[in-house]
Automatic annotation (TrEMBL), chain A:
The chain crosses the membrane at residues 16-33, 151-171, 177-197, 204-221, 264-290, 302-324, 330-352, 398-418, 430-449. The keyword RNA-binding does not apply. Keywords: Endoplasmic reticulum, GPI-anchor biosynthesis, Membrane, Transmembrane, Transmembrane helix. This is Phosphatidylinositol glycan anchor biosynthesis class U protein. PANTHER family: GPI TRANSAMIDASE COMPONENT PIG-U, PHOSPHATIDYLINOSITOL GLYCAN ANCHOR BIOSYNTHESIS CLASS U PROTEIN. GO terms for cellular component: GPI-anchor transamidase complex. It comes from the Eukaryota. It is a multi-pass membrane protein. Pathway: Glycolipid biosynthesis; glycosylphosphatidylinositol-anchor biosynthesis. InterPro entries: PIG-U.
Automatic annotation (TrEMBL), chain B:
Keywords: Membrane, Signal, Transmembrane, Transmembrane helix. The chain crosses the membrane at residues 570-591. Residues 1-22 form the signal peptide. One of its GO terms (cellular component) is GPI-anchor transamidase complex. InterPro entries: PIG-T. GO terms for biological process: attachment of GPI anchor to protein. It comes from Fraxinus pennsylvanica. The keyword RNA-binding does not apply. This is GPI transamidase component PIG-T.
Amino acid sequence: MEEETKNKINGKKLGFWKWAIASVIFRLILIYFPQNLNLSSRPEVSTPVTSLRRLAEGYWLKQLSMSPYAGSMYHGSPLLLSVLGPLTAIKVEGQPNHLLCSLVSVIADFICALLIRATGCILQTAHGQNLKSLGLETMLEDIEIMPSGDIAALVYLWNPFTIFTCVGFNTSPVENLFVVLSLYGASAGIVPLAAFGWVIASHLSLYPVVLVIPVILLLGYCPDTPPRKLFLQRDFQKTGAERSIKNHVQERPLTNKPAEATFFWWRVILFFLWASIWIAYVLILCAISVKEYGGLPEMFKRTYGFILTVKDLSPNIGVLWYFFAEVFDFFRNFFLIVFHVNILFMILPLAIRLNHRPCFLAFVYLTISSMLKSYPSVGDSALYLGMMALFVNELAEMQFSFFLFCGYVGVSLLSPVMHNLWIWRGTGNANFYYATAMAYACFQIILVVESVSAMLNHDRKIRKQCRTMEG
Amino acid sequence: MGIRESIFLLFLILISTYESFAKEGLAEELNEEFTEGLLLRPLPDRKVLAHFHFQSSVPPTRTYGRHHHLFPKSIYQLVNKFRVREMELSFTQGRWNYESWGGYDPISSNNAKPPGVELWADFDVPLDQVDASWKNLTHALSGLFCASINFLEHSTSYSAPQWSFHSFAGKLRYGTLPREAVCTENLTPWLKLLPCRDKAGLSALMDRPSIYRGYYHSQRLHLTSDEFDAVKSNSGIMLEQTLTVVLQPSTLEARAMVSVKTLQPSWSLSSLFGRKVHGRCSVSKSSNVYVQFEQNLVSELKEMWKESEGSESGILIHDDFWTNPIFEMSASPHRVVKEVGNLQQEDSSILYEFLVEDYNDSEPFDLGLRWKLPVAWLCQQAPLRASRFLMGSGNERGAIAISLKSSGINNTQRVGCSEKGSLLSIDIFQVVPWYVKVYYHTLKVFIDGELQSTMENIENMHVSPSEDKVSPGVMEMILRLPCGVKTAALTLEFDKGFLHIDEYPPDANQGFDIPSAVVSFTDFQASIGFEDNFLNKLPILNELQERKHVICYTEVLLVPLTTPDFSMPYNVITITCTVFALYFGSLLNALRRRVGEEERLLKSKAAKKKGPLTSLLSKLFAKLTGRPVNPPETPSASPSFIDYKLIVKVILVAGMAVKLFRSSFQLN
């Protein structure tokens, strides 16, 4: 029996590696023909913030000793500019122009997938321990073919969105990598790594700032658990029962249990310490690199200011561009505030309700911000869809999953068609393309709402089973 | 009354006369001056170029005071108020045809302007006040010339070239309005600046219908002032006004002679303009009319003369040269001026001078030129012919290409290209509006069709990239091309911007203009030198003799930009807000729901009162869903409630989207 299971596990592992390497090879093949695909200028793939073409322009301006932010072209971090900039300028003879940058994104994607897998493993062991401690071993039996981490990593690697993003010559694979890095660091309890990932991710694309709450929860408590109340009840019952039987038994029998409701304050404080160190480090590096071009205020204005004020009205898959192209100028500031606050408004209710599942909370935050951010791309969707696969077991009973799948496929097919009709043929209208963007936003809303309610239902189910066991 | 007194009186008279003499001498040296001139030139494509030139000048205020007799007061005030050091304003309609009207002579370099309005000005103010002065100046000129020059006030429409356009560092501003329509309401205020307006003198020829019927029309106003220079020797303010028109002579006579197709059309002032000159403007210092025969035409005429007469001697110079077998002029020229200093070529252009003051009302001046034999010649071309075009399709991105083609003339004959292996220097200045987002790193140089991998052909380059809604993109560049180059091309890729709905002009689908690029050949001087030194005093010839670079303007490009739907901002706002409300409401609802409590509430309610309506509804619901009647007890039922609501909401949004689609279809 044991040998069989071992073989099975080995087979699974081999399967994972086979598929992962296949995806990398697939990417490399696609990179070799980038001219035919012409993905780098697709609005779905590269946004004004993530486009590497704009980064190359910024690097070129910097080489001419001008500010990289001159000319409203580049809106990214100066650090990314000094790392990726030289790669855009180097041309290998006889190779596609952007080979090196694309290789960087392939590597970033692969590491990202591995980190997702590692996070999945941590989540799974935690999950198993929690259920055991609750006495719900029966729920563990219906484990599927593969561990959820492997599934998530493969979903991330083979998601067409990820592949397009990776081949599409932009910086979102790198941004995604740092987001996943911070979550991995937090769930593995490596405080400096978590702080580093969080600081860099927020520095690169601003929206991961909201991940500070899941990261704190991950560090403070352990990875995702069923509601803590259940453990308390169970502890109480156990201790009560034991007390009634044997009074001389030690007072705290469950000290070794992982799902203790204690909050590790020292870890959070350590996290903030490390985060401030990293922030100082990043700011100093930035200040050095933009010293001659207006300093840090100019950098903040050109990067975060550009993201927050939605200055570029070129079409993308979000809903804000058309809104701000059409809205009357005197309402512009009001709606800017309303739309950005919409992201912030949901942070607190979600944190209260899902505080026992910080990883899932991170997934929900990522989904919301990728839906409401000013320049969304499919790279953001790729990240949250990969994260979602971490919770296959919990979200198995999610409603409308087939409907949502069809919706995603339909939108991703219709959106380029509408874009082509509007921009290239001139026969369509801006409303056609915008309608697909609205549909996409609606599907994302349904995804968030359904996944949150499925997760809450799952918790309810566990609670019920506990109750029936007690009963 | 004695002898003494008479001597004293004599002495007084002597002194006073001496003083008056002295004064007169001084006044002659420093006085307001006005001159007028007209240059006519037959063009190879059966058209005639008429170039009016008026110049007024005033000595500096320091020595002369503020009161003027001739100089326009409005210009004087403009100069003093905004401290303009040099300014040029041109209104142009039509495009100068560099191929058939010439690209190497001073007229084309100075007076071939881009369509619409072009304005540049250099100010004598501290650097931080230049923009304010520019804004005020545009408003003043806008009022003065009845044109929308005030659109140049906004920082997106003007630029500050560093070194390529003119060599004033930092204080020069340059702006163009390619779409400005130029018509008689701009000409009338321009004529008002002349002391005789269009009542007398050469400007009386400016009959509006015949001027605006022409193929090209450019009125220019050039202003130089050194009022504010303390060091230099002051010459005051000089206002130069030129009007350049290319007219098609009415070919009624030519039609009568159907047999000779290639015969150049004969013309006279009255047939060109419909008017005659009745004398000079009485305040003008000189009033001359010139007929210019270009170098190539002269050599062609010599050839013909040689064929017909067999002797080259005395060609065109002897007494009855204006009536020869090839052509005939209706009036006898006062003088013939030959070009000098053109060492390379044996033939040089010729000017026939006519003095308008010899004529009066009874005998009006009506110069005519009649061709007897067909002549064909080519104009002198700039070393390279510059043109600009757009590449790519669709409204997302594209590329600007500037192509330079050799005009077929052996460049080695010209100055600056005498040795083999030496380089041609070409200066390119291009302004691009901000909604054309140029990627300057994609600059590619092609020479003779081959992509240059290194940037060694670019000697110097200055780029100030465009800032969204703040400033246009400016590119200045010095190219070095080998002398024997056939073609050269520059390409730059760009993305098209998307504007806010309010930023589109009323005719948004017509497209947006990219102003002309300026290409100047710094190795080549466009000037014609003349033999007589005293001719330097005549401003119109001065203009021809001024040593300036050969300059040409490229085409204005029309870029179509994508438009949003202008008709329904309300729909977009409401539907987007609905989606946001849907997100917020449904997510909050999903979070807020506590199933256990709700069940308890429902049970208690059901126990309290089970009204007839609710029971009926539940029965109906049960029938519809085909399930037995039972109150929602299972927790799995409650999320399905949420989902129904959610679906209803989604359907609502979808319905609105369909409505939006339908209305947009109707619009289309």
